[in-house]
Amino acid sequence: MREIDCEVAGARLLRWYDAHARAMPWRVGPADRAVGVRPDPYHVWLSEVMLQQTTVAAVRDYFRRFLARWPRVEDLAAAEDAAVMGEWAGLGYYARARNLLACARAVVRDHGGQFPKTVEGLRALPGVGPYTAAAVASIAFDAPAVVVDGNVERVCARLFAVQTPLPAAKPELVRLAGLLTPDLRPGDHAQAMMDLGATICTPRNPTCGICPLLGLCAGQAAGAAAELPRKLAKPVKPVRQGVVWVLQRPDGAVLVERRPERGLLGGMLGFPGDAWDGGGGPAPVSANWTDAGEVRHTFTHFHLQLRVMVATGAGNPERGGFMADFRPDDLPTVMRKAWDAATLRAVE
DNA sequence: CAAGCGTGGGG
DNA sequence: TCCCCAAGCTT
């Protein structure tokens, strides 16, 4: 680790942010900010939960749709579970959607509809961890919280030339991020760090030549910025095989089941199938099943080769139930792929 | 505390 | 095509 002038770095970063901050649906524009307008805590919280492990590009439209459908935290708290899960479909990490709803209800029930203003208060809410608590506290409430996400870790590892690999380096990187965090405009500082990591101090091919911290960065000076942060090698993903059964009734209703709250795709709609352990399994109902081909999908920790069986029929299924107002948009992506394969097959 | 948990885009 | 990985949280 090398020492740098944190005051100068912080000042340069804010100046850069004022000139280059990207417009986002959840951000307050420069004009409003100059007049002292603070971002709505509900908007900040909603965007930060969506942004967990998810790119800005992927979040934009989801954020707009959620806000249009549930303009206030009270509206979200009153929503049906299935409506929220369906609106979240495709965004991934579905525990976030379940926690989102639980959090909105806790804010309304336990806090009179007002988000807690402290890191500790926020941290106690479902789905709010160290990062999100600090982000909401600083961005929405101007608290000098230390915000550390993947971007901040990378920027700090390079700026201070930290050689320790992640995740062991995490505590040290949190300490260094704290040295950089100013008392004034901590929320803008946090967003500046993340914008810098997303646009200039990128994981690969960082554009050090246009970096506002050029000249202060120990990693760049050592010609090793792109090599940092060091990380432990990741294990290879196993390949798993499974089958799903897509059954459409003559009247158009589709056989689906609500997946268990816990585990993979928890709480989401899906088609009946096996455990994706290669064991296969019986069809949920007797019908004239045909093979609609294989769908490939990669999850966080395994690759899936999914056999899609399709039929038209009725009967009393052993699992799930027929849904009349079925909408493919409510499905998680892997299930939507299966639906696409099944319907494409049916058209032929 | 290591493991489980999605998805789409970029190199 | 494949690997990397992104504004993490929970258990």
UniProtKB/TrEMBL annotation:
Signal peptide segment: none
Cofactor binding remark: Binds 1 [4Fe-4S] cluster.
Cofactor: [4Fe-4S] cluster
Residue stretches making up the HhH-GPD domain: 50-199
Superkingdom of origin: Bacteria
PROSITE patterns according to UniProt: ENDONUCLEASE_III_2 (PS01155)
PANTHER family: ADENINE DNA GLYCOSYLASE
Protein name: Adenine DNA glycosylase
Higher taxonomy: Bacteria, Pseudomonadati, Pseudomonadota, Alphaproteobacteria, Rhodobacterales
Originating gene: mutY
